[in-house]
Please model this.
Amino acid sequence: MALCTLSFPAHFSQAAASNPPRLTPQCSHLFWGPDLQCQSQQRSKARKRPNGVFASLSDRGEYHSHRPPTPLLDTINYPIHMKNLSVKELKQLADELRSDVIFNVSKTGGHLGSSLGVVELTVALHYVFNAPQDKILWDVGHQSYPHKILTGRRDKMSTMRQTNGLAGFTKRAESEYDCFGTGHSSTTISAGLGMAVGRDIKGKNNNVVAVIGDGAMTAGQAYEAMNNAGYLDSDMIVILNDNKQVSLPTATLDGPIPPVGALSSALSRLQSNRPLRELREVAKGVTKQIGGPMHELAAKVDEYARGMISGSGSTLFEELGLYYIGPVDGHNIDDLVAILKEVKSTKTTGPVLIHVVTEKGRGYPYAEKAADKYHGVVKFDPATGKQFKSSAPTQSYTTYFAEALIAEAEVDKDIVAIHAAMGGGTGLNLFQRRFPTRCFDVGIAEQHGVTFAAGLACEGIKPFCAIYSSFMQRAYDQVVHDVDLQKLPVRFAMDRAGLVGADGPTHCGAFDVTFMACLPNMVVMAPADEAELFHMVATAAAIDDRPSCFRYPRGNGVGVELPAGNKGIPLEVGRGRILIEGERVAILGYGTAVQSCLVASSLLEQHGLRITVADARFCKPLDHALIRSLAKSHEVLITVEEGSIGGFGSHVAHFLALNGLLDGTTKWRPLVLPDRYIDHGAPADQLAMAGMTPSHIAATVFNILGQTREALEIMS
Model:
């Protein structure tokens, strides 16, 4: 590695030697070198600010009720406006930026804790590097709110995650400063390496910085990318944002749980390795003075100081070919700026990893106390931290799924649950509280989670793998090769199916029916309401000779009566049901789109047309008898689903065509999500953009029947 261990950063040891720090009683065990724990303790004392000294917000246990003035931030529209600021002014800018994030998110909701944790890092990055020429990538992108404010979007922060507003993640179409779009985790090292190699091919000399953390380092792609980066040896900087949540904030109902995986322990050991860090600084100072003979010794000390040495003689990251620097206090702008400048200016060949230790929710007392609860928030009161959660007469589909699974597990000790760092998001924190030894958090590692479930199934265990529809895309090869091909009875519970509102296209569950129903052995089903979800959980538990899956949306149930004791009754596989008997037109709905079909039927009845509405329940196997009956007894058959082209409607059309049911006068029309990505926004707005509202369905019926006037009336 061309980056000399002695050249980085030589002036730090000199400064420490010439100006030794005054040791407080709490810090008297230290020599030279940073002490993150001590800094954290001192942070709770009075702080020096440009306008005087006052108690820290954490000490007061409260926050501002009104947005504080931001005189310095008001002068910053783009990163270039930061370049002439002093380090002292950068600290003030960070304070103002933090309050701006808090007050903006309090009005819109969104990802709060992760953004607050990287305020100083964001300021330092945009101060040292020259974006957009230098590429700064934010893994997952949910921590990018400070980045958006500093890159020309401050005046639009009030539109965050709203229809026609700013996206909640980085998005290339939104700004040239967003060099890579994100939403799913663990992609930025791969993308950054591609940008670095592309830069080299074109003979450019810009910098590439990939910021990764907050659980993203548990995914295999990050290590695949680091391995390849070490081999290709292109210049790039990886910043590991280590906020001690190597898994996402998957709190149980009784409080936070330790981060998932051995990586968490390894990073903790690196953080606590203070004596070696101090020895490193001393060795550098000595080497600077006497040179020569001490070089080899200092290099070895430096290697120790950069992490726990393995049996092969180097750190994990260096085994992968990355030069490791750290741990660095991610809230100390002085250190961040100095280190980033040093790395930027050093003529090196190869990737560098800077281990930055941050605190999620930093600077907002309520988030600091419960970072797991402030990872993502709805609108809230900044002064009290109270979130304005709307009350609803029904619970979420996510909660109903968890309750159904708990009821099944009560009577079947072989049932276990698996999630990928999403205990809260999937509702399995409820399951874990009831069955702590039967719930497995695999980290953000969907591929591993699916094959782990396959292994459990081989041993007679009944795994339910709860993964968001959009995240299931990350594990598709494992679903095909490790589960379906071997006909292993793994049950897939796919939450967030269909449109998802504010999270937008990165989290939209549009494709699961298409990619699951094409697999030969997979049973594919979707409930029309919450009671049906209970029955489908029971059905999946009963299917023990092949894999199965069911999808359900974000949002709350419709208020139907639930089965007694939350215990569903297994359905006959491949059998649908007729909900309304009518004539001329039959609408065959799949999943919760059935609810829109029922509303559409009411609209049509107001215009004198009573139609048939059926609930398919299953996409695979299809209810052939039901479809044949509907096609033969109606002039028009419309299939409706909140999914992409190639899904339920395509399977119905395939059956109709093969059986000659489209050879006569029957008209078939599919209503599916349009063949494009639908941007974030209110759910009602998204349905309207997709042409999937009850009014659209009713208008489609009238248009097919040639009653265009009635269609226009319905739409108006």
Observations:
- The longest strand covers residues 236-242.
- Residues 1-60, 272-301, 303-314 have pLDDT under 50 and may be disordered.
